[in-house]
Amino acid sequence: MNIESIIGEFFTLFIMAFALGMDAFSVGLGMGLIKLKVRQIFYIGLTIGVFHIWMPLIGMVIGKFLSNTFGMIATLIGGGLLIFLGIQMIYASFKKEDEPLITPIGFGLIIFALSVSLDSFSVGLSLGIYGAKTIATVIMFGVVSMMLTWVGLLVGKRVQSWIGPYSEALGGSILLAFGIKLIFPI
């Protein structure tokens, strides 16, 4: 393999990882609109990065044995989770209590990371069928998604102070819209 083909393959993987990571950025932007500490932002990005490694890896392994139909089911589940989280955030923004039902901490963080990374599972299924280079692919997916999540969360945190009490409703609306987009692609 010559250097040009290695660079071309790396660039292709980066573009694919960037495209997959944009959902993590978008959802991070919405989730960043609730009050989060920098430490929480770090752990959220790290967790989503880990999920973007494991989910496509599992998908690649299963992809060698299953059809693309299962990938659509994973996308629908991810969209449903995002819709649920979005509705929950919108509802919590209208309540007097400060604490939402699900926060990106503990089990809530697992649900959040799972909903964001289910599409990478679907891509992993496809890549498994076509025999992509596993280690390079999943590491690229994880690192890029982690970085984009951090950027989205930090931008959301900055914007949150500008729009005040409406920030959580706006964040929930973003998650809701992204979940609908996953279920009903245009």
TrEMBL record:
Alphabetized Pfam families for the sequence: Mntp
Keyword Cell membrane part of the UniProt annotation: yes
Subcellular location: Cell membrane
The keyword Secreted is assigned to this record: no
Membrane topology label: Multi-pass membrane protein
Keyword set, alphabetical order: Cell membrane, Ion transport, Manganese, Membrane, Transmembrane, Transmembrane helix, Transport
Membrane-crossing residue ranges in chain numbering: 6-29, 41-63, 69-94, 106-129, 135-156, 163-184
InterPro entries, alphabetized: Mntp/YtaF, Put_MntP
HAMAP family reported in the protein's UniProt record: MntP_pump
PANTHER family the UniProt entry points to: MANGANESE EFFLUX PUMP MNTP-RELATED (PTHR35529:SF1)
Role this protein plays: Probably functions as a manganese efflux pump.
Recorded family membership: Belongs to the MntP (TC 9.B.29) family.
Protein name in UniProt: Putative manganese efflux pump MntP
Organism: Metabacillus herbersteinensis
Gene: mntP
